[in-house]
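Run: sequence + 2-deoxy-2-amino glucitol-6-phosphate -> complex structure.
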Amino acid sequence: MCGIIGYVGDEAAAPFLVKALKNLEYRGYDSAGIATICNGKVCAEKDVGKLEQVCGTHDLHGLPGNVGIGHVRWATHGDVTQANAHPHFDCKRQIAVVHNGIVENYQDLRTALECNHRFVSQTDTEVIPHLIEEYMDAGASLEQAVLQASKQLKGCYAFAAVSVKEPDKIVATRRESPLVVGSNAHRSFIASDALAFLEETNRVVFLEDGELVVLSKDITFLDNDGKPVKKDFKEVDWKWDQATKQGYDYFMMKEILEEPQAIRRATMQDRKLLLEMAIGILRSKQVVITACGTSRFAALVGRYLFSRLAGKFCDVIMASEFQYFSDSVDRNTLVIAVSQSGETADVIQGVKRAKENGATVYSMVNTVGSSLARMSDSVLYLNCGPEIGVAATKTFVSQLALFYLLSFTMANKLDDGLHDLLAICPKIEENVTKNNKKLQILAQKTRDKNDFYYIARGINFAIALEGALKMKEISYVHAEGMPAGELKHGTLALIERGTPVVVVCPNDYTYEETIANAHETKARGAFVIGLSEETHPIFDDWVVIPDVDEIFQPLVTVVPLQLLAYYSALTRGRDPDKPRNLAKSVTVK
Ligand code: AGP
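>> structure
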């Protein structure tokens, strides 16, 4: 979480920094700031609030100088205050630093530094400029000081530093937090994500753990001993305008409407790679899928597909818990890590542990060049373009599409499977048109309800979980999803008159039993919202879904639930793209 940016070029840095931070705001939006170097001084502005608010009260655009760094924050250490906003400075305000990650040993470092240094924030970050100050005061260059300071830090970080003593450069380094360098003829950037500067250049280099980059007129890469390393720029094929709203009020709506296209793009895979991975899965003694949040729900659907289409059983483990199973992970284990960002710290940590134990790692990732992609033995890319809304929507259906491809390949039915999968896309498009108004009305109708329950069975069970996650994440409403059969084992006690219960019940082999569970809630006064091809007398409200083969149902049941959450957020005055307390890329554990 947090986004960092750095710029060196032949024009004023500030306008580029502000524009880049706008593109990074999905990573954090509780405060923002930038620092530039000009006439032997660090010039800086920072404050709490979204970037737009900070720009409204401070002249970020007007900061002088052609070298600068910037930050959007998602608070980990210290409240959301101006003092805790980045950049942070040394005692003499000659050095400025922006940081993404967590310095785990900051308290020890701070205690040691406090006898000679004055701290003004509660953040872990502030130890970094003071450490750099120590080394520079002892005669080190900025890059030597950054290198030595980084060796003192425990935890994960990507940070960038500027100093008035070496005013033409930025030095940046990383460990376990992303950092990418971009460059064209006139300007160079470092950022947490290439999206930040994609409008300027798509030529990028990803930094490896421990590497440093010195950005000035030239770009130099150093290894963790300070020795120069050669790194080649490559082009990323994302287009910067994919990361703009293109006329929509919110990214989330744009991204929901892009889902059919996302599925089509996910199917564009190298068949040889698919076959190799499918064989790898079938031959593995033990297959574990690991992921967090929405990606984990895609994995739960994937588990059904592996089992139903290819008779291959596997387990799905929450990435934050995966490391505690490392005793059972060895060279006979195949780990499939699913993460749209490819930077989720819990996933990276679990995968690292599994690799240490000799496991093979496959991954499904959207962000090309992300940490997870680079540490995997084989990668399938979602290919759906950048997803900016914090709520995962199009990446979820893309992940499902990849699980379909793998499962059909494992069953030796890829061509038929592909044909059937692509036939679902127009059905999703038609269904959105059909349900759009209805879901707005439903969101209005339920706007005073603060507890929602979502139930389903079989392959749709994970969709109940996803529907509930979307609702709580962007509407701030309590919502729980569960297998319909679990209700009576406790949760039924919470159903009262008028409690909304969303019943996902396509007309398949789970229908009768799910309807029976819906009856149990109705008998306690529930307001039953049914998702099915046909209405049923028990439904107080009915959301129609297209009639598709049972294995494809998750693709059509999830979309109305995303829209219900979206309209509920709007009805309740929430910003669906930037829900409170959350960030898109969860790079802390
Ligand atoms: C989804 O709407 C959430 N924002 C969140 O649960 C997300 O899916 C999770 O943090 C995992 O992210 P990843 O796919 O980038 O690893």
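>> summary
Residues 2-236 form a domain with the Glutamine Phosphoribosylpyrophosphate, subunit 1, domain 1 fold (CATH 3.60.20.10). Residues 292-295, 339-341, 344, 347, 390-392, 473, 586 surround 2-deoxy-2-amino glucitol-6-phosphate (CB under 6 Å).
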